[in-house]
Structure formats: C-alpha cells, structure tokens
# Entry
Amino acid sequence: VHDRTSYFAAVPEAGLTVGYEVTDGLRLTAGYTFLYWSTVRRAADQIDLTAGGTDRPAFRDVTGDYWAQGVRLGLE
# Structure
C-alpha cells in the first residue's frame, strides 16, 4: 500500500525562563517549555489489527495532536 496524502502541520513552541541572583557567584534559574504539534500520524494508529475479513491488516489514515511540556531547573 502506498500513501500519497499530504498534510500541513504547525509546530509552535513557547518557553519562559526566570533567574535569580542569590549572591555574586550563585544564580538560580527555572524554566518551562510547551510544544504543540498538529496533524501527527503515529505509526501504531495507522494499522487496523482487528481480526476478520480478508483485507486485514488494513491501513487507516488517522491523525491526532501531540503536545509536550518541559520543566528545567538550573544552578550556576
């Protein structure tokens, strides 16, 4: 099976980092990052493995959204 479908996807990312200078030689930082990816085709969602029929396993064109978050802490 060959798939020639094209999709447009957006992948925006936003982040925020703040820092606080405790002393002249010590700085603490904290940050947060958010990533969103639209129109994701995950491999496990593309194959229909249910039993029955002669056309199994069948290809399914399934898309979804993906988002990830990250937190970071730093000490300099």
Remarks:
- The longest strand covers residues 26-40.
- Strands lie at 13-23, 26-40, 47-48, 58-59, 64-75.
